[in-house]
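Hey L., structure's done. Input below.
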Amino acid sequence: MSKKNNSETKPMIFFLNEEKEPLFSKKNRALLTDPMDDNNPITVQVLGVCSALAITVQLKPAIVMSLSVMVVMAASNVIISLLRDLIPNRIRIIVQLVVVASMVILVDQILRAYAYDVSKELSIFIGLIITNCIVMGRLEAFALGNGVWRSFLDGIGNAAGYGFILIIVAFFRELLGSGNLLGYQVIPDMIYEMGYVNNGLMLLSPMALITVGLYIWFQRSKNRTLIEKN
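Output:
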C-alpha cells in the first residue's frame, strides 16, 4: 500500500488549515502593525484623506469615525472572505458594495440610537464610508484572496492605521484651536491670562492637510525608505 503524500490537502476550518500557523504569527501580526506605520493607508497609500479634512476639528467625532470604520472593515472583510468562492467575478464589486453598505447602515443605526449627537455631527460622512477607498481597496486586494482570520486582521489593522492618523490630527486641531480635548478645557486659564490665544486657523480645513503633511514629513524622516524616488 502506498504511503499518503505529505502534501495531501488537510481539512479546512474557516479557510484555516488544521495544521496552520499560530493565530498571531509574525506574518499575521504584520497585518496589524504595518498599517500603523510603514504601510499606513493615509500617509503612505494616500487614501481616505477626505475624512482627515472633514471630521478632525474635534477629537470625539474622529474617535467615533475610527471605530465605525473599524467595525465596517472587519465585518466586511470577514463576509467577503467567507463568500469569496461563491462570488462571480463579473459582479464582485456590486457584492462588495452591498456588503459594505449593509454594515454602514447597521453602524449608522446604532450611532443614532446610542450616540445621536455624534451621529448628527458626522452626518453624511458615516454614509460615505461605503465609498471609502480604504474599505473597498482591502476587500478587492485582500479579502477576496485570503482566509477569514487573516482578512479580519487586515481589516482591523488598516482601520486602526486610518483611525490613528484621524485621532492625531484631531488631537492637535482641537487642542491648539480651542484649548479643549473631548469638550473639556485642557489649557488652564492661567496660560490665557499670560497672553496665550487659541489658534483659530487650526479649526479651518486646510490645517488638517498641513497637519497630515507634517506627520508625513516626520514619518519619512524617521523611515527614509518611504521617500519616493524620482
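The chain has one domain: 46-220. The longest helix spans residues 148-178.

-- N.
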